[in-house]
Amino acid sequence: MNPSDKISRESVLIIGTVDTKFDELAFLRDCVVEAGGRAVVMDVGVRNQSHFVAEITNREVAAAAGVTLEDIADSVDENVAMQAMTRGAIAQTLKAFREERVHGVLVLGGTMGTDLALDVTAALPVGVPKFLISTVSFSHLIPPERLAPDLMAILWAGGLYGLNSLCRSSLRMAANAVVGACRNAAPIALDRPIVGISSLGTSALRYIVALKPALEQRGYEVAVFHATGMGGRALESLAAQKTFAAVLDLCLQEVANDVLGSIVTAGEDRLENAGRMGIPQIVAPGAIDMIDMPSWKATPHAYVGRPRHAHNRLIASVVSTASERRAVARAIVPKLASSKGKVKVIVPREGIQEWDRKGQPLYEPEAHQAFVEEFVSGLGSTIDVLVLDAHINDGQFTDSVMAVFDDWVRQGVIPQGVVESSSGGSLRA
To answer: What is the model's pTM?
Structure first.
């Protein structure tokens, strides 16, 4: 294909192994065309056999990885072979995207294809339509840290080997979805600096009610991430792309969950990417005292008898012990200490989520005090810390966060916001 041949906004890159899934890929290609799009097929199969010629051949994919298809096919380790094809697929995908030959990606696969798909889609910017059709979509086999923040997925039900009416339905839905997304996708507006904030819902953490309008009045766009695993994952992914002017990481429950073995995790690198990118951070240990679990499963034996809060039919929490909270504190400190950007830690001495107030079901003041002691001691003199005689849901906490934020804007640590002028133009705040 001529790299200069730019095509319509509905052009979709379909990625799969033509040697083993040619019927499915041909069907997907036809569905994309029927939906009004144009299909560009990339073959990532490792065998030197194809039942149709892809627009981007497996030989081109291998070459982009710096090897030959024969090298890959001769590999005795299929995992190593597929990782080589993954490197080539990423290179070819980014090239096609930069040359505007494709505007969205649709990847088909089982575990092998999904492994490749996760890396390919994560390499694309936010806002580029990306869709995964997989036999393991939504599975706990997929680590949260490998998910692109705007990845769409559908379960490839009944589609392991050949076409049938069940999997045709899934394939057709996916093709129509990605064509529609390509047709109507809009790039992220970057007319105002974006501030990323972690939080739970307002029944647990209420600071967002005051923080969001205060930041918007100062000319910032505010993106709030629900810290129940996938929200924190999206926050980390976007921080790694330097999307934010500042991060207010005020709910670290996902870090606690990861340390204490909960499945409600955002990955091991939670609380690391903003610091790695030098993005200024205001941090508070919101909700680190809760261990999350599915409420539709029996409480694990180790947690039976602990105070428990069932938030809904999906998620429940038990309180952590003093020793567990000390372990969480010790895990947070090195993440912050490694930051390349400005960090301010605010520790509310009177509590860190609504259900830990006096008289509430998760009230454990001695355990919270143990965390505060361990945390503040660990931070030492290397990280600027403010201990407040307040609860995280008190106005004093919100005022303290905004005082630090405004001071950093005055210092130039955080870029100024952009507000509308009376004439309709934009001005720096």
So the answer is: 0.86
